[in-house]
Amino acid sequence: MGRKDLPSMDAWLAEAKKLETAGKIGMYLVHNGVVRQSARAAVREGKKDTAPVTGMHFSYDKGKVEDVIAQTYRLEGISHIRVWLNEGELEVGDDIMYVLVGGDIRPHVIDALQYLVGRIKNECVVEQEIN
Question: Quick one: pLDDT band at residue 3, thresholds 50, 70, 90?
């Protein structure tokens, strides 16, 4: 399994529901990214000749992640964000990240989760697949 201790979604949600901002939140969404066996090139680009993934080297820039989180809080209706990122050499099936977003209504929370995860994946992390 991965290098870091995994967070508990039950604990994250219980903590979030005790915060001062909890009364503004009508929905929480969770994203759990996992190392998959299918190579990115096969999944995203349709390349059939890629070797299966056996693991991944994963790292991230903490400062960039914090900046993206701060920018996500500026989106309409968003009152709660929590992010956990793994690091090191991961195996297929290991957790890469957990992201929890809470906000007022479904469209705002869905948009914020997509925005946040997309920016983390595109701007803050380094994923090197091992084949």
Answer: low
